């Protein structure tokens, strides 16, 4: 049975690492599975892409589409045509996609048009804000998928509300698998704490990349002011900048907002294993990333989410996470109030990837 996996953005490489390893394990024991990896090139920065193949032992892609940046329509269109030809040539039994990126949607649409069954890992998540391109991507992907693998029971309920009940399974979160696996690897291989001159729980970590924030100058400025207000010599704030965010800051003259406070350390994108260590050791994490919200919980670090909503409502309900939007005063207040919360049982037992592969191995007919 052949599986074509489409990935293109940083979180997808992490998810693919866990599932690809489970595919290899299954094949060694039982045979019968072959994975063909397609890298769309949606993330093309060295630290945003290549590092995953170097550090995490993700199988090298058979195809690299090198799409790069561009408008949502242009990117998705380029991917769609290229993936369609790959599916025609490879004739897979499954098309496997992760999450909610343009790569996810392009892969799912190409497969659906060719009647190749689609498996969507991380199905059913909803922000209920269709202004977010990620929300449109995930809804469309779910509605053309044959196998919908959900990380939470809330995701299953979201799908049922939309009339999607066939092929839906709760498998847990493959990102939790990754957190358990790669935390051990990172502890042995990363020197980032020494390189940055940091001690545990003496700094804050922030990431900003969502289009809803970077494409809105007022929101972006509010976030930057909020982050800058938190940083101090005693507790600096590390801000690894996504390439798109860095370009936006420069284009809109917002670099000066951060430059006013030398305790804000603007970094290049941080390699994944270094990022794990920074997340583990941070006193507080501030982010608009869905993945980083969960990773904060996995490492038991309080989180402030720089958005108006989140797909990961469990983190809010359990008290680990606070939603503050882009308001500087709310950011500062939430940071002061951040505390540990209670345990969340939704994300599984660390074997979500194995469950994904078991369901794939049964074949489309069983979905």
Polypeptide structure, described:
With 367 residues, this protein is α/β, with parallel strands linked by helices. The chain contains 17 helices and 13 strands. The radius of gyration is 20 Å and the shape is globular. Strand 12, helix 15 and strand 13 form a beta-alpha-beta unit. The relative contact order is 0.13.
Task: Label this structure with key terms.
367 residues; alpha/beta; Rossmann fold; 6-stranded parallel beta sheet; 17 helices; 13 strands
List the helices and strands and how they pair.
Elements: E1 2-7, H1 10-30, E2 34-39, H2 50-55, E3 63-64, H3 72-90, E4 94-98, H4 102-113, E5 118-121, H5 133-143, E6 147-150, H6 153-161, E7 168-170, H7 174-189, H8 192-196, E8 204-207, H9 211-214, H10 217-230, E9 237-240, H11 243-251, H12 255-259, E10 264-267, H13 272-281, E11 284-287, H14 290-298, E12 303-305, H15 313-317, E13 321-323, H16 328-337, H17 352-361
Parallel strand pairs: 1-2, 1-4, 2-3, 4-5, 5-6, 6-7, 8-9, 8-11, 9-10, 11-12, 12-13
Helix pairs in contact: 1-7, 1-17, 3-4, 4-5, 7-13, 7-14, 10-16
